[in-house]
């Protein structure tokens, strides 16, 4: 097949390489000319994704992948067009911002030819595939969905760093706007993906037709919103446990020994492109979902809550030297999307502290570009807050933070034996913890 992939980001490029690796001819289109140039030269644009470079090298050498900024080069005569353009949420209104996706859909519609399957993999609010993309493509292309082309929704379900493994591990969910569109989508994804045996599943691993685009849209929102609500509950338990001298991690371990309990770990922040965003996409079409809203608000409040509790221990933070350990939203991942570092720094600065940031994955120049004053271990500090669960912080010792009066461990990452004798607040534990 000839396949077009719209947007060669951290999901789109691996998808393009997966398709190319299965013997199909792939054209990737992206508005970023520098990224397009790197892909065509066989240079991975974002290191850290397992197998990405070797698969890119193989695809370019085999002539199976070409990148371009020109939709007219990618879309015409494609058997399938896969759209993975980012969708953002307005921070003030919490409403989805469709600007980039509208532009991409307009451009692909202008060059769409009959017989094409269009699959949206970007996570969407329920109803958008049918209510927004279908009429937009029909109006611009002059073609009729269901007759001249087919639109389906098929959410990406992968995790950065292990995308190729996840493509094999999880069922590929699809939902069409018609029976024929769904049949075409099943046929397409069975041709480009391979699946691991999953005896734990109720049915065979593979392509699962959920019956409608709306069901597939909701499935992706539900599985990610569940995680946010679960973490919100874990955070609620953690604050109560800490206030009552209880170790919440022992409680969670005990609970999860029972097959029906799956409590997640608490923490100072929930970051990344997915979990902080998708509950808001769900809320945009289900405004009565009070449980979802409360959990999201509670998780967003955690940096402020932990800084306030630190203030309760130290007193006035004005003039103190504060360090936030970790800019990345998740340990081992060089990405700051919705990272807790931003509200944590803001909460400290609001109280008059002088704040610097340390992260082993970022250079001083990169931290400065993010708007932070960089910190090097060994510099004087009054209060430090662990925001990211980087492996390096598990061995962190007071000697590396000279003068420290309080460590707030927002990820329960540090060793209590190493910190014996130094004030340390650990989210979700009693005694020396929060």
The radius of gyration is 24 Å
Which range does the strand content fall in?
5-15%
Order of helices and strands, N to C? EHEHHEHEEEHEHEHEHEHHHHEHEHEEE
Distance between the termini: 57 Å
Query: Fraction of residues in helices?
Result: 25-40%
Q: Which strand order spans the largest sheet, edge to edge or round the barrel?
A: 3-2-1-4-7-8-9-10
Indicate the low-confidence ranges by residue numbers. Answer: none
Describe this structure in words.
This protein has 14 helices and 15 strands. Helix 1 packs across helix 3 (52-61), helix 5 (99-110) crosses helix 6 (128-141) and helix 12 crosses helix 13. Strands 3-2-1-4-7-8-9-10 form an eight-stranded mixed β-sheet, sandwiched between helices. A five-stranded parallel β-sheet has the order 12-11-13-14-15, with helices on one face. The chain is 38% helix and 14% strand. With 434 residues, it is α/β, with parallel strands linked by helices. The longest helix is centred in the middle third of the chain and has 31 residues, at 213-243. The chain has helices at 12-21, 33-40, 52-61, 71-74, 99-110, 128-141, 163-169, 179-192, 213-243, 248-255, 278-283, 290-314, 341-350, 364-369, and strands spanning 2-6, 25-29, 65-68, 80-83, 88-89, 96-97, 117-120, 150-153, 172-176, 207-209, 321-325, 354-358, 383-386, 406-409, 424-426.
């Amino acid at each position: 097949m000839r396949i077009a992939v719209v947007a060669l980001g951290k999901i789109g490029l691996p998808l393009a390489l997966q398709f190319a690796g299965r013997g199909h001819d792939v054209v990737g289109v992206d508005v970023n000319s520098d990224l397009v140039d790197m892909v065509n030269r066989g240079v991975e644009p974002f290191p850290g994704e397992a197998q990405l470079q070797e698969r890119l090298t193989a695809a370019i050498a085999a002539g199976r992948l070409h990148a371009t900024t020109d939709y007219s080069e990618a879309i015409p005569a494609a058997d399938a067009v896969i759209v993975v353009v980012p969708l953002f949420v307005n921070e003030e209104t919490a409403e989805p911002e469709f600007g980039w996706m509208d532009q991409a859909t307009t451009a692909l519609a202008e060059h769409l030819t009959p017989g094409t399957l269009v699959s949206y993999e970007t996570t969407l609010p329920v109803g958008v595939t049918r209510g927004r993309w279908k009429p937009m493509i029909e109006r611009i292309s002059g073609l009729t969905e269901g007759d001249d082309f087919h639109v389906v929704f098929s959410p990406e379900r992968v995790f950065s760093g292990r995308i190729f493994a996840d493509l094999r591990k999880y069922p590929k969910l699809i939902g069409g706007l018609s029976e024929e569109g769904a049949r075409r989508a099943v046929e397409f994804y069975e041709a480009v993906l391979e699946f691991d045996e999953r005896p734990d599943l109720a049915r065979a691993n593979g392509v699962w037709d959920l019956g409608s685009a709306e069901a597939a849209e909701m499935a992706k929102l539900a599985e990610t919103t569940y995680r946010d609500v679960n973490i919100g509950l874990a955070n609620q338990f953690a604050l109560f446990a800490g206030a009552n001298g209880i170790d919440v991690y022992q409680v969670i371990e005990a609970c999860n020994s029972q097959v029906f309990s799956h409590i997640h770990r608490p923490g100072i922040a929930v970051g990344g492109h997915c979990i902080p965003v998708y509950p808001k996409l769900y809320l945009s079409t289900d405004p009565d979902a009070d449980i979802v809203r409360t959990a999201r608000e509670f998780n967003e409040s955690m940096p402020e809550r932990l800084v306030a509790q630190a203030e309760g221990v130290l007193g006035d933070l004005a003039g103190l030297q504060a360090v936030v350990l970790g800019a990345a939203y998740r340990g081992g991942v060089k990405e700051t999307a919705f990272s807790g570092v931003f509200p944590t720094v803001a909460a400290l600065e609001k109280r008059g502290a002088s704040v610097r940031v340390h992260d082993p994955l970022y250079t001083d120049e990169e931290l400065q570009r993010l708007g932070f004053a960089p910190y090097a271990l060994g510099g004087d500090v009054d209060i430090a807050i662990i925001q990211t669960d980087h492996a390096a912080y598990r061995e962190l010792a007071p000697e590396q933070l000279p003068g420290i009066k309080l460590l707030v461990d927002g990820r329960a990452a540090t060793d209590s034996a190493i910190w014996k004798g130094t004030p340390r607040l650990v989210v979700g534990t009693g005694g020396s913890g929060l």
